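name: query_chain
kind: protein
chains: 1
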Amino acid sequence: PITVTGLANGTAYTFSATATNSVGASSASSASSSVIPLTVPGAPTAVSGVSGNTQAVVSFTAPTSNGGATITSYTVTATPPDGGAAVTAAGSASPITVTGLTNGTTYTFSATATNSVGTSSASSASSSVIPVTVPGAPTAVSGVSVNTRTVVQTNYLSANRIFSGVQAVSNADLLQTNLASVSRTGASYSGNRYFLAENPRNPADLSRLTNGSFGELGGSSNDYVLPNQVTLTFVLKLGSTITSIRTFAGWRDTGRDGQAYTVQYSVVSDPTNFITLAAITRYNPDESNFPIINNDGQTNPNTMVELTSSSGPLAVNVAAIRFVFGNYDTNTNAFENGGTGYREIDVIGSTGATTVIAGNSQATLTFTAPSDNGGAS
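structure:
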């Protein structure tokens, strides 16, 4: 056979042949039947995608060359970047919807064209597209009526350094088990430099300022502090529910056992905005009615203030809790010796699931976040 080149695909041709010898050329043969040169189409161009819910609508421009034969179909391929399984879809024209994609996964798209001869090479890949949809609905939604929560303050005076009935050390004390960081602002002396257990005997204990058991007051001046004009902020690792707060105070001799402070907290959704939980009523008992003799022959009263809620927890979704200690001078609070010797702070509660808490003319609604974010934050 003889190959004739330079023909135009898609154009009909007939062919005739002549024979030539030394004398000359023969007459032409009869014409052949019509023949149309064909090939596969060119590749589509300008491929782009628009994301949807587990799908994408892919548009493209048809190739300028159909290879001489009508293009019968197009195929779009969605490829994830991590080597996962590709997803394909076919259609007769642009656009083509590719379904079965995973929300939140990045895909690029390419397209091919097919005619009676075969399939073109793939187009250049599109820009990345991420299928998304709205998130799933929150669950476990609940609420309570307003004005149902009251912070209850209970005051205790002890003849001993151990308060009977205090809770044992456990995961309930968030400042022992769930503390991320702690900071102090305010005055830098008058005992304040010893706060946060900065004495070498107990350097890791940031809230229980004693070498004794939970709720047991120490017997040394190194086991208490005078946080006058000081603010202490305890940042928790996880959003927590607080059910009660206990503060212990006392001294080796008379005085410095009266308590007065403000408690504030912030929530996970707004961790830097602190809300006042309670400004406790000043508790300063008369030690003359409580003659306790310690090893030095001096009276040794100890106090505990406990905060609880009249209904439900004190606070939920807590990111941080803050204690604001004022200036305990004799004109303002009439505390003995100009200050209170705080020995221990306990914040009792739990992490994880929270419940609803009511406030003044409002209710805080809590819920469980949906497991499906729809592919977007």
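note: The chain has a mean pLDDT of 75.
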